[in-house]
Specification:
about 400 residues, mainly alpha, Serine Threonine Protein Phosphatase 5, Tetratricopeptide repeat, 19 helices, elongated
Length: about 400
Amino acid sequence: MSMVGETNGVVDNSYATLFFAYISRSLDEALATVRAVSSRLADEERLQACHVLDYGLRAAESWTGARDLTIALATYMERGGHWEIWQQFLERAIAAAQERHDLDHQITLTALLARLYQRWSKSAAMVQSYRRVIRLARRGNNRYELARACSNLGYHYILTGNLWRAELLSHYALAIFNELDSNHGRAHTHNHLGILFTRQYDWVKAKEHLLAACAIWQTSQDQFGLMRGYGNLSFLYHETENYREAIHYSTLAIELAERLGEEPLAGVFAMNISVGNLNIGDLQKTKEFAALAQTIFEKHSDRFGLAQIAHVNSLIAIEEKDFLQAQRYIDYALNELKERYFLVQVKFTKVKIEIQLRNYAIAEQVLGEIETLLTKHLAVNALQFYSDKLKEYWHRLAQALSSSPG
């Protein structure tokens, strides 16, 4: 009896040793494959890497390889929109790092989870994750991850309109990146500050920071950074009504996005090209790029993108004198859109439509809402920027009322 038991034990141990050797080798091969990719990871390679990673995360013996593959694979899983399954992998990897008291990689993996939530528009989970990164980074004296978390959290506050907090976090992050001489961190934080100053209608500072970011990315040949920088320069030029420059930079951005497999961002750039063409009077290209953006946003269930493209579609419907269709689109956009910075333009479009449909009481109400947004909820110089447009729309409403029968 004991002989059989000992024999079984030898066979089991040998099998386990062979299995872990196989997993370790497979992890190394998958990691080499992922690291060799220059832009887009093929679906077959992605599925194989995930299959190997699934086994690698199950045992302590394969932790190093599984950890490295998780970090290497993160960008491609995010770009491909495989967010739900990737969340599960990251949570498993974080748990494994905790079990092994690997604080440095627990920080890195938690930062990747926060970044995933940021792409996924899961704001509450993202803020919670970045705050956890900040706590862990301070405990482990990891200055780089501390700065990166502050920079990315600052970016979130830019998008949600908490500009004072965003500016504090961004400048704090930039100071640390300068101290660490990290061009990567500097570039991303300059990019965030460029967006911040765009939201504050400070075009000079916005352009200064965006060009600084792009200069670093050009020097380091960071195509992903340049894609984002070009996209943000495009938006800046659109806001300052330099539409041909806006189209130029959006075109550069979408070309990079398509080459790099960044389909969700390609939708954003397609939408920006659509709006630019609308403003220079090319309705055919406007509709072509709006349709492309909508297809991408629908594929990725991007509610923010779908709300924005609904606004674009309402503008197209206005050009085609279909004001009832324009009203349907704009009401959808207003119902879905939460960011106050974008709400101003959407509400101006709503006023234009309601005046055309002779719904003057609604138009007056929405103009009042715009004034409240500009005076109480946006940057201090927002009212100055929109002053002429606001006066123009009040004048349009007054004229419509005076010429209305009865």
